[in-house]
Amino acid sequence: MLVTIDHSSPIGLAEQIAASVRRSMAEGKLRKGDRLPSARALARTLDINMHTVLRGYQILKEDQLIDLRPGRGAVVAAVAANQIMVVDACLHFIQAAQKAGMTSHEILSLVAEHVGPGRGASN
């Protein structure tokens, strides 16, 4: 199955849908131009609300990974596997940090500390 979710996960269902599609893109299971299942069909398959699927698709649209057009559905717009994996890793990091009780400021400070001057390939 293209999209899988875990109802017992603390991660929201819409985020899980987006992460699952990202993973399929990164693994090469989805390519530019491929159509995603309709929100109604996916909701029925996953036994969740159609609006939850639409929120997951909206997340992917905001990341410029899919196009959403009335009558056309959701279509893969671009696949940059490395970027998808980085976004997915960042989301998992943020969720883990929040679960550990870190504030947004602490999370940003931690990232800034490790991306500061002299670190990384572009410096």
pLDDT average, as an integer?
85
Query: Are there runs of 5+ residues with pLDDT below 50, and where?
Result: none
Distance between the termini: 42 Å
What Rg do the Cα atoms give? 16 Å
Instruction: Work out the helicity level.
Output: 40-55%
Major sheet: arrangement of strands: 1-2
Which percent range describes the beta-strand content? 5-15%
Please count the beta strands (DSSP E, at least 2 residues each).
2
Q: Which structural class do the helices and strands define?
A: mainly alpha
Can you characterise this structure?
- With 123 residues, this protein is mainly α.
- Helix content is 54%, strand content 7%.
- It is built from five helices and two strands.
- The chain has helices at 13-26, 39-46, 50-62, 81-99, 104-115, and strands at 66-69, 73-76.
- A two-stranded antiparallel ribbon has the order 1-2.
- A hairpin with a 3-residue loop joins strand 1 (66-69) and strand 2 (73-76).
- Helix 2 packs across helix 3.
- The chain is globular and about 45 Å long.
